[in-house]
Amino acid sequence: xPYRKHAIQIISHLLFVGLVTILSAQTARAQQFVFDxxxxxxxxxxxHHGYAKTIGRFGAYEGQAVIDFNQPEASSIQVEIEAAxxxxxxxxxxxxxxxxxxxxxxxxxxxxxxxxRIDQIDDRTADVAGRLTMTGQTHxxxxxxxxxxxxxxxxxxxxxxxxxxxxxxxxxxxHSPAVGEEVAVVIETEMVAR
Length: 194
Fold this sequence. Notes:
Blueprint: H1 2-29, E1 30-48, E2 52-58, E3 61-68, E4 76-82, E5 86-87, H2 91-98, E6 110-120, E7 125-134, E8 137-150, E9 156-166, E10 179-193
Antiparallel strand pairs: 1-2, 1-3, 1-10, 2-5, 3-4, 4-6, 6-7, 7-8, 8-9, 9-10
């Protein structure tokens, strides 16, 4: 009987240690990252009367992600952009785009994206679906995200993301269709562990 009791104690201890190890491993899988702003670019392009594309960028933004390296589908990302920080290289045009009929930044200063679902395509590619809020309206978009590199210590990752929106869905319809309806968005970022 003493032997049996001792064996039960050993088994119980091993089960407890095993459970703690599993839970710790599950917790360790998910890690929080933020944009490295010195290596992040958020840009857009739109057709201008068929002659050429107008290209711009946003200079003020915040981005964070919770990345689960063992289960990428459980990861998430959130981005907030100061709409008024847009820059197309021509101040008069930038002020025009900040006004009514376009981004209306005085009333809607933030553009945001919150992921809802991640569908992994292969080891380095995923479709990230989520809610894009702009000019006070929210609609779903799906961005194609490519994992470029993971640091050996997993404290830095690099991504390229692209997606296209139809601007009139967010009420941004001024000068359409002479000025393109589709806006292509690109994000190049290095993210560092927090």
